[in-house]
Structure formats: structure tokens, C-alpha cells
Amino acid sequence: MSDSIKYLLNMKRLPVLIMMVVAASFLAFKTMGTGTKNSSVPPSKYEKILKLVGEMLSQAHYSPQQINDAFSKKIFNKFLGDLDREKNFFLQSDMDALKRFESKIDDEIKGDPVEFFLAAGKTFNTRMEETAKMYDEILSKPFDFTIDEDVILDGDKLTAAVNDAERKDRWRKKLKYMALERYADLLDTREKNKGKEGFVVKTNEEL
Questions:
Q1: Phi and psi at residue 126, to the nearest 5°
Q2: Residue 167 lies in a domain
Q3: Who contacts 183 (Cβ-Cβ below 8 Å, separation ≥6)?
Q4: Which domain holds residue 53?
Q5: pLDDT tens for residues 145-184?
Q6: Contact 89, 124 (CB under 8 A)
Q7: How far is CA 9 from CA 6, 55, 96, 116, in A?
Q8: Bridge-partner residues for 91, per DSSP?
Q9: What 3-state class would DSSP assign to 94?
């Protein structure tokens, strides 16, 4: 048995499955995309991968896992949580729609058609494309730094945005904060290097 397999079988925590499932879902995302280059790859490939994962976890001699609905819910929450950790992409309607898979991932691991990872990946790709356009639109206009605003960057303190307007406003505040943070860093660098040979002091307008 290779060292990598021994390592996987001897990990004590849930991430064993997470690592394998995410690997399977990554393959799903790669074939999905927006074009047709890989569209001919059959879903049965993913089903075989997930089935193998289930067999490894249920038969491994070290701390075998029960592949059931409770386990499925852990994977569901972990996967979506890691995919959109800061709650910047998914809308609440997306989470509600994906909720139907919450107790079905264990069945997919046992051989049912792979649906959850493909559905989650398709939705995520769509939201990423929307966000890219939103990002460009926000940055096309100057920020108003005369307005005091609060921004929450910790995803654990947020729920998914209820609509596009809320999601866009979150991005606007986040980008505004990042711009201020960058500006503060440049001012700090200027102050630290002031007087050093070869260092050019820029005005605030140039920064």
C-alpha cells in the first residue's frame, strides 16, 4: 500500500471524504464549463469515483464512516461552505434550490446518478460570470469615500444574499474597503521609505 493511500486511510476526520468528493466534483466542473470541448464525457465517470470513495470510507479498517443521510448533510454544508466561504456568489434562492440534494449525496456515493455536484457547479459558474460583470461595473465608477459604511468580511456572520442588488452592494463595499486598505498600505510604504535614496515620494493624488 502506497504512503498516500495509508495517509488517506489513517486520517481521523471528515476531510478524508471532502478531499475525495471535491476531486470528483472538480472533474465534473471541468467537463461542464461553457463550451462543448468536454461535454461528451459521461456522468458515469463521476458515479464510479464517488462509489469508490464510499467503498473506501465504509470498508477502511481505520475509523470507517457510515454513509447515510446525516453524513450527506455534512458533505452538503461543507462543500457549499468551502465553495462560497465569504457568501459572495450564491443567492439564497440557489441555496434553497440545492437543498433538495442535502440528503441524497450518500445515495450518489453508493451509485446513484451524480446530480448534486453538477448542479452546484453549474450554478456557481453562472454566478461567477454574473459577478465578473458586476465587478467591472462597480470599478468603472469612483468610490464615494465621504460616506461612512460598514462592511462584513466574515462569511460566518453572513447568510446568502437574497437578490442581485444585495449581492452587488456587498461587492461594492468589499471593493471599497480593499481600495482603502491598498491606499493605507501605500501611505505606510511611503512613510517608511521617505528619505531613502532612489525612493520617489508621490503625492496623494498620484497614489
A1: -60, -45
A2: no
A3: 207
A4: 3-140
A5: 999 999 999 999 999 999 999 999 999 999 999 999 998 8
A6: yes
A7: 5, 12, 34, 25
A8: 161
A9: helix
